[in-house]
Amino acid sequence: MAITDIKEFAHLTENDVAAFGAELDRIRRDIEQSLGERDADYIRRAIRVHRGLEATARMLLLAGRYRVPRLAGTGLLAAAKIIEMMELGHNISHGQWDWMNDPEIHSTTWEWDFAGPSRHWQRAHNHVHHTYTNVYGMDADLGFVVLRMTRDEPWRPIHLIQPVASVVVAAGFEWAIAVHDWALERRHTGVSRRALRSRPNIEFAHKIGRQLGKDLLLFPMLSGRGFRHTLAANATALLLRNLWSYLVIMCGHFPDGAEKFTVAQLENESRGEWYLRQVLGSANFTAGPALAFMTGNLCYQIEHHLFPDLPSNRYPEIAERVRALCHAYDLPYTTGSLPAQFWQTARTVCTLALPDRLLRDTSDDARETRSERKFQRPPLPPADSATGVRRGLRTALATADAHRRRWRLAGKR
Q: What pLDDT is recorded for position 293?
């Protein structure tokens, strides 16, 4: 099963965890105290880029009867929608730019270009997912209800189709998230499904009408005889945004090394343990400036989970300090290339489609689900006797994995 005692799993004492948390608090203070005009310029520039791309795309699609402008318009519109969702809508709704006190760029006023209302998403994502990150039974984003992403979830026959279900979720990711958030909003407000005129239902219906009317009716109609072509272009742009956002989100939460936790871990969880859970429960992928921008800087998912309300443009410099801190405490800092991280995620989706009796690894020692019970050998000394270098979770994982490989090789002989 998943981790029940994060200190034991991480090979850290209570004092270690407190010191680890204090270092991360120091990083937060440093960034908050240095926020200024260059950060404000960044988000305003990002908004101009998005609006310029969308305006150019719409003009090209007005000439939708011609193939080249139609393809260019579709590509630019997809890019604009990706930027609006990932770098603008997601990050502004997290309150990353509230410190500017700009009423246009504020978490309470920004309504993103997305099927679900921003307010629904903020409650489900900001207040639930980011509080209970990867805690089975608490974090509804752990598999988005329809995917089995940890062995803590009992296998059911319906899971056999989850490789196909994951493709459907990816293609309709916008709607999967919107419905997911809508359901959590109803549950939070205690509204029955039968209460059709409830506030969550009315908000959801209004937003759906606005989105469908804009992308699938208004703009295609403005194209006149190019209605069909513009409709197809808009639908394609939405599909590309869905696939891209699914790829980014899955690679930040479910590659090997993104740990899962039990509700027991939440009992009396300290600030340092919360920080530690964010580091161990998240994963990054390598990206240059352009790719990072197109992901909303969510290629730095570890840093985002640590500091979800700090401006995304500061994540690269935060990442350098977090990586160094993990090295100092001998903690893993899970990262890799985008293709590698997605391959690991897709492998987990396919692996956990099968019942546990058909799987080789145990529920305490699998790629996607590990716990403190993985380490059954005598614990390592806290430091190397020769060099004095700390030996913690990263060394313990490498030692345990090497032992397992030797055991399997011996069994094959």
A: 97
